[in-house]
Structures are given as C-alpha cells and as structure tokens.
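TODO from last week: model DUF1858 domain-containing protein.
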Amino acid sequence: MIGRKEETVRERRPDPEMTLEEVMTAWPACVSVILRHRMLCVGCPITPFHTIADACRAHGVDEAAFLEALQAAIAA
C-alpha cells in the first residue's frame, strides 16, 4: 500500500522554484535527465540550495524544455 506522503509526491510536478535536491529525492528518475543536460549537480554541495531555475540559468539550459524532460522521466 502506498503511504499518503508518497501519493502526494507522485501527484506533484516539478516547478522552477524546487531545489534540485528536492527533485532528485522525490523523483530519482530525474537524475538521468540532469546528467543528460550536462548539469553537474549530482553530488554538488550547492544542490540543496539551487533551484531548477537557478541551475538552468547557470548551465545555459532551456528551462521549459528541462521541465518537460523532468516530467517525462517522472511519467515513465
């Protein structure tokens, strides 16, 4: 049986103000998306503080496309 907290995480969607740590914790499948976009955020000490928007800006990644790729990984 899925716990209430887990149901809530599955229903949520990543948004630009979430930190990358929150994203990777809630949806481990998103790690591959981060790496595929050549973001070196996995294991980085800034990850708990860097939002999706911050990371996209810092790495020159299109935010809308990145969010779409995250959502596709979550849905898979």
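Done. The first helix runs from residue 4 to 11.
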